[in-house]
Amino acid sequence: MSKNPLRSFIQPVILRRLCDKPKLSNKPSNTPRPPKDPPDEGYKPTSVDHNGIDVPPFVRPSSFRQFSGPDEKLGPGAGKALPYKNPTYFGYHRFSFMELTSTAVELRDERRLDGGLQAAIEADEETECGEAQLETMKKLEGECDAILSNQAKKIQQAEEKCLQEMSEEELKEWCKKKEEDIKKKEQEKKEANSSPKEKKIQDMSEEELKAWCQKKEEDIKKKEQEKEKKIQDMSEEELKAWCQKKEEDIKKKEQQKKDEETKACAEKPKCEGDENKKD
């Protein structure tokens, strides 16, 4: 085979064309670029006045540039519903990177000081979630109460129907059972109220019993003193009426004692006569 004399010249040209990268054009593009100039002196905004940018609460508003208005076009095809989903890129200025890094460092230091816990932002989110959960719990409680009330009504209606269908004897037995249950409950309540006091007195030591008795004596003395004060403050007519009542009470007590003694004396000879008969 005859060698091609031009092969040595053609081969390097082809390789160059295959390996060379396409050259970029020096012409300026028609797409608008965001202004990257630094903000003016004293630029300290309190909020980002643009509808297409959602700024998290821990990011400073000074990280974004000044906008001409809330409806300013950020970039070609940039928006939440547009092909380029990161419109915030077109809202930065020349020193935005430094602002964002400084905020990140501050958050990191705060987290280290808190022992590795999240910043207060997440705590706020948790409180909001907790409030929402409380509201849902309240709604569920209301629904449960409504269901329980409906069930109770149905049970009452069923009991009323059963009572209407009962005979007289069955109704009497049912009423007796209800009365017994009510009495048992009342007795249990009384025992529950009275038993703790008795147990306390029984479980007291000698010193505690002495102190308890002293308190009781003091209370009795106070009551007597109060009565004496009331008697001293009475008028003559009130004193006379009070004395008459006291005399009547004393006479009644003496008469009751006499009646009891007479009954005892009347019963003694009968018992003696019965014993003599037995002998």
UniProtKB/TrEMBL annotation:
- State the name under which the record lists this protein: GD13418
Tree of life domain? Eukaryota
Q: Enumerate the residue ranges of region (Disordered).
A: 19-81, 184-206, 251-279
Q: Report the Pfam families cross-referenced here.
A: NDUFV3
Q: Sorted alphabetically, which InterPro entries does this protein's record hold?
A: NDUFV3
Query: Where is this chain compositionally biased, Basic and acidic residues type?
Result: 34-43
Task: Give the record's GO CC terms.
Answer: mitochondrion; respiratory chain complex I
